[in-house]
Write a structure and sequence with these properties.
The complex is a heterodimer of chains A (112) and B (116).
Chain A lengths: L3 E3 L2 E5 L4 E6 L7 E6 L5 E7 L5 E4 L2 E5 L5 E6 L8 E11 L2 E6 L3 E6 L1
Chain B lengths: L3 E4 L2 E4 L4 E8 L5 E7 L6 E7 L2 E5 L6 E7 L2 E7 L7 E8 L11 E2 L3 E5 L1
Parallel strand pairs in B: 2-11
Antiparallel strand pairs in B: 1-3, 3-8, 4-5, 4-9, 5-6, 7-8, 9-10, 9-11
The chains are: A mainly beta (112), B mainly beta (116).
């Protein structure tokens, strides 16, 4: 049930673009994206709720496909501050309620 | 105040010790969470409190005991831990719980626990 992210790791030069994918075998209720820097708390980036939705701010954007089984995070003109591990997350129905789980993670390193 | 504060930041404990982790938020969030994170792995959900009541226990061993004294505080009591319990323990909060939480979760910076 855990969403699978790809790639597992990526290294970029400043100014390059990256795409991180989050896939599930079943439709997702929603997708959250987080970035976690080493030794720090995960920081919420954005949430997507509807199939076909796209949103973003600054140079980071995300999409949610129509079937709600895949989301992609787009990092444009990457900066050193983009380095970290990116997680997607979603709510999984369980025992009449929901629990929130994270995807497998993607480690991103931006080099000067 | 838009932070979740966790104390202590680091903790080393023996397998026979009893210790507690603390988490505090003043954002008026009604759901609070404990996650465990091993190195290079995603956070794993342990417990969910909603409106100060335990809503989810992810089959966590009884040596971990959560407590929510009020809507702003969340504790995790530790007793007789094993070395494999060494990890980063993250607390988080959100406005509500379940779907349609538009603002995501706010995480604390965690307590790095080492069991010796």
């Amino acid at each position: 049930q855990q969403p699978v992210q790809s790639p597992q790791a990526v290294i970029l030069r400043e100014g390059e673009d990256a795409v991180i994918n989050c896939s599930s075998s079943k439709a997702l209720y929603s997708v959250h994206w987080y970035r976690q820097k080493h030794g720090e708390a995960p920081v919420f980036l954005m949430i997507l709720l509807k199939g076909g939705e796209q949103k973003g701010h600054d140079k980071i954007s995300a999409s949610f496909n129509e079937k709600k089984q895949q989301s992609s995070l787009y990092l444009t003109a990457s900066q050193l501050s983009y380095s970290g591990t990116y997680f997607c997350g979603t709510e999984i129905p369980t025992s009449g309620t929901y629990k929130y789980i994270f995807g497998t993670g993607t480690r991103l390193k931006v080099l000067a | 105040d838009t932070e979740v504060t966790q104390t202590p930041k680091h903790l080393v404990m023996g397998m026979t010790n009893k210790k507690s982790l603390k988490c505090e938020q003043h954002m008026g969030h009604r759901a609070m969470y404990w996650y465990k994170q091993k190195a290079k792995k995603p956070p794993e959900l342990m417990f969910v409190y909603s409106y100060e009541k335990l809503s989810i226990n992810e089959s966590v061993p009884s040596r971990f005991s959560p407590e929510c004294p009020n809507s702003s505080l969340l504790n995790l009591h530790l007793h007789a831990l094993q070395p494999e319990d060494s990890a980063l323990y993250l607390c988080a909060s959100s406005q509500g719980w379940g779907v349609r939480d538009y603002y995501g979760y706010t995480f604390g910076s965690g307590t790095r626990l080492t069991v010796v």
